[in-house]
Structures are given as C-alpha cells and as structure tokens.
Design goal:
The chain is an alpha/beta fold. The protein contains 24 helices and 25 strands. The strands form 5 sheets. It has an 8-stranded mixed β-sheet with strand order 3-6-2-1-9-11-12-10, sandwiched between helices. A 7-stranded mixed β-sheet has the order 22-21-20-19-23-24-25, with helices on both faces.
Length: 680
C-alpha cells in the first residue's frame, strides 16, 4: 500500500445496531492503522424507517422511541463526561430541528429526496463513532466530515447525478493537509440548489463509493452482516458459499436480480478507476471476503444464483401486434408513465405476444393501465387477452464466464427439470451473463436448491422423516447413522434425519440427535404430540435435494397420507403392510399418485418376508422381458399357518405359538387364536 493512499470503510445499519456493535466497529477501525481512512456510516438499524414513519405521521411516540434508544446507546458506550454531555446536547438540538421540519412539511407533500429529517440517523451514528474513538485515545486524529460540504449533486438529462468537478474541488479543500480517520455520515448530499438532500435507499453505500472515487482510493470495504456475497441466499440454501472474486458486471447483474448485499449504483463511481470493492463481515472479520473488480477468473462460468420474490407475470396476446411497429413502445411508455418498472421481458418471435414481469405491488393497476392505452385495440380485437399471474418469483444464474460457454443453459434447465418445477417464462440477455426463469413462488425454494446443487455443491442432500420409532425404526436409524460417513465418501450423498415420531410424540429438528431419540423414547414432555401431517410439512420445508418418508408403523391411517407426500415431492419407503393390503381403491390411488408426481414408492419389505422379489420382477419387466409365470411362496406368514393347521405334534404347536408371540405378527396371532378355538 502506498503511504498516502486512501482506504474507505462503510458500515451499514446492522453493523451499528446497538452499543456492542458500535464498540465492535470502533475496534475494526482501530485495527486499521492507515493515516488516510474515511469511514462512512449508516443510521442504526431501523432508525431511517422510523424517521420516515414519523415524518409521515408526526406521531411523537415514534420520535420518543428513537430518543430513548440513542440516549441509552450513548450511556452504554461513552464514559468521558465532556464527550457524553456534548453528544446529548447535540442530540436534543437535533430533535428540536426535526420537530420544526415536520411542522414545515405538514402543509404539503414532501418528496423523499427533499425530506431532511431522514438523514439525521446517519449524523447521529457519525458523531457517536467519533466520540467512542476519541475516548479510546486513538493515536490518530479523528475528524468529522460534513457530507454537505463535499458531495454536490447536479441535474442532467439522465436525472440527478454527482457534480464530480465541484465535489472533487470540495473534497480537496476539506481534506488538504490533514490525515488520520475521517468519519462521515452517509446518505446525505447537497443539491444543486444548495439544499440538503439524500441519495435514496442504499444511499450510504453510494456515499462510500463517491468518496472512494473522489479520493482515488486503494479500495472500498463494505462491512455488513454476511461473509461477503454468497453463491445463493444463505437463508434459502445452507450450503451457500462465499464468492471470493467477481467482476463489476457480475456484481451488477446479481444486484439487479435481488442480491441485497450490494446495490448496482454503488459500483458505478468506482468502475472507471478500477477501484476494488471488498464485502466483509463486521461480526466475523476473519472470514472469507468477496472482492469485486475488473478481473475475471477463468473456469468459473456461473458465479451466483439470485432471486426476486413477489413478482407478477403479465402476458399480452393479440394478432394485431404482428408486424405493427410501435406496439412495444406504447406499452412500455404507458407503464413508465404509471411508475411501473419492468423486471424481465420476453417476446415471441412471431410478435403475437409480449410477456413481462413487474413487482407484485402493481398487480391491481396493471390491467387498467394497459387497457387505457390500448382500449381501441381491445375493442376491435387486435388484442385479445391480458393474462396476469401473481405469486411468482424470478430465479437468475449469473456469471461472465457463461458468455460463449456451451451447456450452461442445458445444465440450468436440467436442474429445474429434476426439481419438478414448472417454468412460466424464460429470458436471457444477448451478453449471456445471466439466464432468468419465472416460477411459482411456492416452488422457488425447491428450484433454487436443485440449481445451486447442480452448479456449486455437486452433492445430494437426502432428508429423511421416520414414522414409527419402534424396534424396526430404531434399528433402521442405527444402521443408516453408522453408514452416513461412508455413504457420503463413496457416493457424495449427505443423509440427514429431520423428523421422527412414535405413536404418541415426535421431534422436528434441523438434525435429529441421539438425545432427541432418547427424549422421544422416554416420552419426554419437551417432545411435541405426534402429528404426521405436521411432520410431512416440516419435511417438505427442510432444505434438501431428495426427501423421503420412512413408514415403520402398522398404522392404517398413515398410508392415507402417502398421496400428500407425493404431491409435495416426498418419496415414501414403507414397511407398513396396511396401505397395500386394504382396499384395492386405496392401493391403486397410492400407486397412481406416486406415478403422477414422479416419486419413488418402495414397499419391498411388505411382502415375501422382505425377500427382494418385487424389485427383481420390476427389473425384469423394465428391461423388456415378459414374465409368464412366477412360482413360490412369497409370504413368511402362510407357511407357518399351513403347518399350524396340519401338525399333530403338541411340542411343535407350542413352538409355533412362541414363534407367533415373538414376531408379534397380527395375522399369525389371529390365525393362532382361531386354531386354539377350533381345537378346544
């Protein structure tokens, strides 16, 4: 690092959530020994939203809650009396200003960017950080920068933008002949009319990148609450990994399609000067980080998967659009006038239909907006139909390495196909840096799991729910648990039990442990009452590629729930004879449901004393063979029954009776009782 090079740190609201977080942030600042460090801070988590609510409602209780929180934080972080009192006095003065601003706004509607109330959260954070650093006796000078004296905006044909020339001049004047740590409130800027304004949502990140560009910094570090940018949302995919290196273009694509860690406008001031951005974890600073720069890494075709939820898909059809110039222009002009942004767009090459996705908040007005613009076209039949589908989501795979790489689309759609999820719309840009599909919101989680596994994990995650923790069920668990490591090593299949029940209680957990089983067997009160339907729902919601319900019961009720499992794409393996030995209608319904939903239904242990003749027969027929005749005794029950009826030897009868008792076979038990009744 050059001696005079600048570094930019930016800390978000989650990093400044409370006094412990603020002290942690100050420690991170002190660990950086740079004499040219600019620290841009957001408001404490939730404060900006509260200020928005207050400015709209003027409900004094909202402001009182903010005041209580901030004063408590000062008390917990600042011990030196002079600093403590100065912060409290400045804060009290700010509250008076906020009330005055609220009164001035009461008679008119105020635009968000003109609402000066919204920027106070960042101002309070910057003062508090400066106070803690001054109290800690940091050897460097701690300066408080006023963003209104540096970041200046101007109006252009593309809207409001940074006045780079004026801002550069003010930056040089403010920081000339100074060094140390410079603390600055994010989000705030000066308008071309010399009025305080703000940079909108994610404005503090934008402030940091503006300062990085003005300083021609060595780097900009965005400190947040995740280990960099992940290959997928870690709340959806527990196997998501940190993307250690990505290009600006890739980061912009991910940001556009919903990645919340970084906003696309954050990168724009840094791209021309090739200033790298680092995404770091405030609470785990030693963890992996994401570096965003112009560099591309060979061999990585897909960098990440991102999603946008709460989408409405709109499809317009009509033969009157074919070959008619200007239709798309009219459509998107009327959407723009209504303030509706299009997220994704596809059009049939025949020009017979246009399909696009919008935010679900506009779903109630979209039909009226289109029909107002195209009323004549609908009346004469040029346009026939508007189809609106709510409850949709977008999945996008992103990566610069996709450009010119064969097979990426095939791999993506193969994973979607394996997830049994229906695709409602498809879009791919000519740059080939992303492929997007629209799916039902209900299918989103499952589809993302399969796509992420295909591109990043490579392993199969098998999720199991076990019903019937008796002798057979417990032995099954023991054997699988013993072999888990070997199965993972040999076949790359990770097995995880997440649900287990006996006749009265159940355990639902991310991972079933031996202590959970002990509690279940001991009928511990901490266990929930057994509810197989709830187990199925939990199993369905658990992250995994393949899900299986194991039925080791003799219940006549549970087989009725097999169809529900299949509808949820949960496979069933059963040792329960009741489902297949009752009514023929239920038997056929179970098999048809498994086939329709393309789920595995394995029931080998329900017949033939568990000898694998069912699979053998299926394998023969699957290979094209025709079976003419099968001979044999495919039951462990009937041979004993026949011997019992035929034998005259009393000792043998006693042995068979004990055999029946030991096996606890209900059919044998009934036959033995009938035989005893006949003999007597």
């Amino acid at each position: 690092m050059q001696e005079n090079s600048w570094q930019i740190y930016k800390f978000g609201g989650s990093s400044l959530n409370n006094s412990d977080c603020i002290l942690n942030v100050c420690n991170l600042i002190k660990e950086n020994s740079s004499q040219n460090l600019i620290v841009v801070v957001s408001a404490m988590a939730g404060v900006t939203d509260q200020l928005v609510d207050y400015s709209e409602s003027r409900n004094q209780s909202i402001l009182d809650k903010i005041a209580d929180r901030y004063r408590a934080t000062i008390n917990e972080t600042i011990q030196e009396e002079s600093i403590h009192e100065a912060l409290l006095e400045e804060f009290s003065n700010d509250l008076k200003i906020i009330n005055e601003l609220a009164e001035s706004y009461s008679e008119k509607s105020i635009k968000t960017e003109e609402n000066q109330i919204l920027g106070f959260g960042e101002i309070w954070s910057s003062r508090l950080i400066q106070g803690v650093l001054n109290e800690s006796k940091d050897q460097r000078d701690i300066h408080l920068l006023d963003p209104l004296e540096i970041i200046t905006l101007c109006k252009t044909e593309m809207g409001v933008n940074v006045d780079w020339g004026e801002s550069k001049k003010l930056f040089s004047e403010s920081l000339s002949d100074k060094n140390g740590v410079f603390i600055m409130a994010g989000f705030i800027a000066m308008s071309s009319d010399s009025i305080a304004t703000n940079l909108g949502r994610n404005g503090s990140d934008y402030s940091a990148s503006i300062m990085g560009s003005l300083a021609e910094a060595e780097s900009v570090s965005i400190w947040t609450d995740t280990d960099g940018i992940m290959t997928a949302d870690p709340n959806q995919i527990d196997s998501a990994k940190t993307i250690e290196q990505m290009s600006y273009d890739e980061a912009i694509e991910l940001a556009y399609f919903g990645a919340e860690v970084i906003h696309e406008k954050t990168m724009s001031p840094l791209i021309d000067k090739d200033i790298p951005i680092y995404i770091r974890n405030t609470f785990n600073p030693e963890s992996k980080v994401t570096k965003i720069s112009s560099a591309l890494i060979e061999g990585q075709s897909v960098k990440g998967i991102t999603t946008i939820e709460n989408i409405t898909l709109v499809n317009i059809e009509g033969s009157g659009m074919i070959g008619v110039p200007g239709t798309a222009k009219r459509l998107f002009s009327c959407l723009s006038d209504a303030g509706i942004s299009v997220i994704l767009l596809t059009q049939a090459s025949s020009e017979h239909s246009i399909c696009f996705a919008i935010d679900e908040q506009f779903s109630d007005q979209i039909e009226d907006v289109i029909k107002d613009e195209f009323s004549d076209d609908f009346s004469i039949g040029n346009l026939q139909e508007i189809e609106i589908q709510n409850n949709a989501s977008v999945i996008a795979v992103v990566g610069s390495g996709m450009t010119g790489t064969k097979g990426i689309a095939a791999q993506f759609f193969r994973a979607i196909t394996e997830s049994e999820v229906n695709v409602m719309a498809i879009a791919q840009g000519s740059s080939e840096k992303n492929i997007s599909v629209v799916v039902s919101k209900d299918d989103l989680h499952r589809a993302v799991q399969f796509v992420h596994n295909s591109f990043f994990t490579g392993k199969t995650k098998l999720i199991i729910g076990l019903v019937g923790l008796g002798n057979v069920g417990e032995e099954f668990y023991r054997q699988v648990d013993t072999q888990k490591e070997a199965i993972y090593k040999d076949f790359n299949v990770e097995i995880n039990f997440v649900a287990m029940s006996n006749s009265s209680h159940m355990v639902l957990s991310d991972t079933i442990s031996q202590s959970d089983i002990a509690s279940l067997k001991g009928r511990d009160q901490s266990c929930q009452a057994s509810n197989v339907e709830e187990m199925i729902k939990f199993l369905n919601d658990s992250p995994g590629n393949i899900k299986v319900l194991i039925d080791c019961t003799a219940s006549d009720v549970i087989p009725d729930l097999y169809a529900r499992c299949f509808e949820a794409k949960i496979n069933v393996i059963t040792a329960n004879k009741k489902g297949l030995s009752g009514s023929i209608d239920r038997y056929e319904d179970i098999l048809e449901s498994a086939q329709e939903n393309k789920c595995n239904f394995l029931y080998e242990t329900t017949a033939g004393a568990a000898l694998p003749f069912i699979k053998s027969v299926k394998d023969f027929t699957a290979s094209g063979d025709k079976i003419k005749e099968i001979e044999g005794v495919f039951s462990g029950t009937w041979p004993i029954c026949l011997i019992l009826l035929m034998v005259k030897n009393r000792s043998l009868k006693l042995f068979l009776a004990l055999r029946i008792k030991v096996t606890q076979n209900p059919i044998l038990g009934m036959i033995y009782q009938a035989w005893m009744w006949r003999e007597n």
